[in-house]
Amino acid sequence: MSTPSTTPHPHARRLLRTARSLALLAALATSASCTAEVPQAAPPASAPPATASATPGPTWPATVVYEATGTGLADIEYFDAAGQFRQLSGRKLPWRLSFVSDGSTQRTVVVTQRTDDAPTMGCRVTIGGVETGPPNISNGGWRATCTG
Prior knowledge:
The protein is 11% helix and 36% strand. By secondary structure, it is mainly beta.
């Protein structure tokens, strides 16, 4: 009986990253802010009810801008104006995409580093010229995710 090989498949790391990206995008499907990799805990049951924000939301239709910052190459995943999930492999940073949205679809961009040299990279989403949250900067990490 032979022993299973301990040498990983040459594409195992990329496949794992893609699986993680898809799982993260699914989890973010209802999110509405720029977030880091770690989800925030829900407030305790005894917390007072949240009040409405003093800042009004965007007026739809609005121009949505995705930005991926940094240097080097990255894989970029996002939802387009029609709500379709898109994947771009090996795009040179910085990268930017602009489109008009009616507000009915998810607005998410995920930037994943392509090499092991851990470049500084980040992302941001703006809607109608207003940034949806602080930019997500990955200093030495391998992924940055922003939603709006």
